[in-house]
Every structure is written in C-alpha cells, then in structure tokens.
Amino acid sequence: xxxxxxxxxxxxxxxxxxxxxxxxxxxxxxxxxxxxxxxxxxxxxxxxxxxxxxxxxxxxxxxxxxxxxxxxxxxxxxxxxxxxxxxxxxxxxxxxxxxxxxxxxxxxxxxxxxxxxxxxxxxxxxxxxxxxxxxxxxxxxxxxxxxxxxxxxxxxxxxxxxxxxxxxxxxxxxxxxxxxxxxxxxxx
Length: 188
Known about the structure:
The chain has 188 residues and is an alpha/beta fold. It has helices spanning 27-39, 54-67, 100-117, 129-141, 145-148, 180-183, and strands spanning 2-8, 47-50, 71-73, 122-127, 158-163, 170-177.
C-alpha cells in the first residue's frame, strides 16, 4: 500500500482577504505550518514534493525542518484556477471554470506518475486548494466539474489517499483534515 499526503499551504491572505501568487505566509499561516510539522514529526516519508509558489514552499520548509529531506519542486503542483474559479459551495456554469480541462489533464497525469514512481511508499505533497479539489474530482467523479464545487480544503489540511499496489484502487482516507490546528497551542 502506498500512502500520499496532500497538504494545502498555510494561510497567506492579507488583512483585506486577498491572496496573490507571490504572497508569503502570514503569522497564522506560520503557526498552522508549525502545528502540521508537530503532527507529522514521526512520519517517515520517502519523498517530499512541493509547488513552486512561495506560500507552499514556506509551508514545506517549516514541516521539512523536522524531516531534513531533499524537496522535489515541481510547477505542475502550482495553484490552478486562482481566484477566478468558484469557491466551494458556489454553483457556477462550466465556463466559469476557465481551463478546468487542462488543469484536470495536468493533475491527473502528475498523479498517475506519482503512483508509478512511489509504490509502497509514504509521500507528502505540498500544493494548493484548487489543485487538491481537481485531484479529488478526478478520482471520485472522473473529473466532473460538478464534484469540484463540493470540496473545502482548509489551510495546512491533510488529504490522504492510499493506493493498493495490486489493484490500483484509490482509497481516500481523509479530506481536508486540519485537526492539528485545533489540537496544539502554538505561538510565534
């Protein structure tokens, strides 16, 4: 069995509720990343992947401070859709999901390669909310944009997927598990 941990980056929204691509983690985001690092401190990952966007890289660096691993940075893990895509719970017409099909193809291809390259391993992947929502849509609904609308992925939340090496069956263990942000009292 292979286990994949997909992590959305920590909070990077500014005081106006805006998060642009080059934004760094805010104080809350750094605390969330520290809480996640504490939660995952005993995991033995065989590989660590990260998007090439600052907020994701900073989240990865904080968690990796415990693991001291070589990080594989890949732009295919970068955010998709950005602010133009509807947020969870907002019904929209398919055309509002500009480039959804292209994102789905890229993410599905990356997921396939991850599964091929990491059989019977424990892998952690730092990415973004829409990226994880597209991945879940590809697994649960063959890439339907209708499924995409139903997921909320919290900052530093874990979405864990197991893959049976014999059958290839994907079991979704957790979706957006951010329990660590409520379990520990952390201060910076």
